[in-house]
Fold this sequence. Notes:
By secondary structure, this protein is α+β, with helices and mostly antiparallel strands. It has a single domain, classed as Aspartate Aminotransferase, domain 1. Helix content is 35%, strand content 27%. The protein has helices at residues 13-18, 23-40, 93-99, 119-136, and strands at residues 44-47, 51-60, 66-76, 81-85, 103-104, 108-111, 138-140. Strands 1, 2, 3, 4, 5, 6 and 7 form a 7-stranded antiparallel β-sheet that branches. A hairpin with a 3-residue loop joins strand 1 and strand 2 (51-60). Helix 2 crosses helix 4 (119-136). The longest helix is centred in the first third of the chain and has 18 residues, at 23-40. It is globular, with a radius of gyration of 15 Å.
Amino acid sequence: xxxxxxxxxxxxxxxxxxxxxxxTRAKDARTLDALFRKVTGWQPQMWGPSIIGYGxxxxxxxxxxxxxxxxxxxxxxxxxxxxxxxxxxxxxGPILSRLGKHKIGRSCLYIxxxxxxxxxxxxxxxxxGLDDLxxxxxxxxx
Length: 142
């Protein structure tokens, strides 16, 4: 069975954020790091080369596949900020309707810049995502 390709690395989170080339994206990454630390109470870890994760969860699917993944986090990508709320956004429509300008994927929220969204609503969404995740899988600080 294939292993999860995205795993915790020893890469330094602060060095990664400091190396984000675009000034607005770098500023947003620093803001998101502070927000995720405040909301979760957890220290960040790098997952793969570009995802900053907070906490983790272990899963085992009905198929037998198992592994670990970040509980929540973000990535300051070149084209947008990708925010990871696991396992997804299916039940978060009322919160998302108050968030501001965004796009959604399966377990990703895409934001062009933090100026486009309400950070208090984003905090609410992160907490709702962690609450939903903890009903499905065991979540730990890291």
